Amino acid sequence: MHPNTTTLPVTDYPTTSPYTNSTGNPFAVAAVDFINNLLNKIPLPRWAIYAIFVVQPDVADVDYGSAKRQRGKLLYSLDYNAAQSELTVGIKQANNLKAMDLGGTSDPYVKVYIGPDKSKTFETKVFKSTLSPVFNEQFTFQIAKSSLPKSTAVMKVFDFNRFSKHEIIGEIRVQLCNVDWNHVIEEWQDLAEPAKFEEENLGEICFSLRYVPTAAKLTVGILEAKNLKSMDAGGTSDPYVKVQLALDKRKWRKKKTSVKKKTLNPYYNESFTFDVSFEQIQRVNLVISVWDHDALTRNDAMGKIFLGCDAAGNQLRHWADMLSNPRRPVAQWHSLLTAEQVNSTLVLKRKLPLQNKLPFLSGPPT
């Protein structure tokens, strides 16, 4: 039964046909006879047939095109500090989000960036099993006042999934040329259907993390990647994965997988173990990058992601899950970002010097 229908008593429905001829028009008589004969062939009481017609929803009530109502709302804020050329985007809360999971709920988080350059991308933390999360997070972007008129603040709400692609619930795009910067903007807005001109998809990578504090061992398992970007003329690539550790934002240790020939969906199942003390794991960042191998020219970067103490969003969540589950591998899929996006957030210094290679750091000769 339609949810907006009120059940009526049987006696409220007519028991005879409403189609009667009051004009004597032979065409009308024929039409009435045809309708009555048709209704008589339906194996239902006449009142039930009329009830079916009464409770049918109007076409406007059907959910076609009702994306805004279904996707929910987002409360956000915008504030620009002209003296410091800083734009602060606040993600306050969401309400009545679309349920993406079988249990009638979602695990929402918000991704924020400024277009068209997308030099930095931020993510809120993930909220489990809710359609009305309260985020209360702020993200700051360096942007010149002259660039505001041609820039767009983009806020995308996703449903988190550990073992599959994160589904987008909806998005908001605010043209900054239309904003009055004389005061802080704070408003609710309906989430819209994702724009068709979606940013370039660089693919996804799945890897596991395992940390054993007692042994001071960090193991990174590169499992597989999918939907990678084609880098070669034949529409394919020769991808391999580079695994790099940075300590105190200095390049520290690195290893790499084998090269998989002519594929955009490589399967590796290769693991690498690093000696990392419990004190160091709190200052470490893990950089995962995918490269296209070229025998004659320079290898091309295909995508990048980083996790660790300076990460945010899903990357920080994966890192925290690893630390809270010692000795157990924790696997998760991640969407690859451009090297520019990662490098703007994680600025690495030169590699840590090795004491035994620097004479002035060695002890006196014995």
TrEMBL record:
User: Any keyword NADP?
Assistant: no
Q: Which GO terms describe its molecular function?
A: calcium ion binding; calcium-dependent phospholipid binding; clathrin binding; phosphatidylserine binding; SNARE binding
* Record's keyword terms, sorted: Repeat
Superkingdom of the organism of origin: Eukaryota
Q: Name one GO cellular component term.
A: synaptic vesicle membrane
- Gene3D superfamilies cross-referenced by the UniProt entry: C2 domain (2.60.40.150)
Q: Extract the InterPro entries matched here.
A: C2_dom, C2_domain_sf, Synaptotagmin
- Cited CDD domains: C2B_Synaptotagmin-1
The UniProt record lists the C2 domain at 70-189, 201-334
Task: Report any one BP term from Gene Ontology.
Answer: synaptic vesicle endocytosis
Pfam families attached to this UniProt entry: C2 (PF00168)
Spell out the PANTHER family in the cross-references: SYNAPTOTAGMIN, SYNAPTOTAGMIN-8
**Which family is annotated?**
Belongs to the synaptotagmin family.
Would you tell me the protein name for this molecule?
C2 domain-containing protein
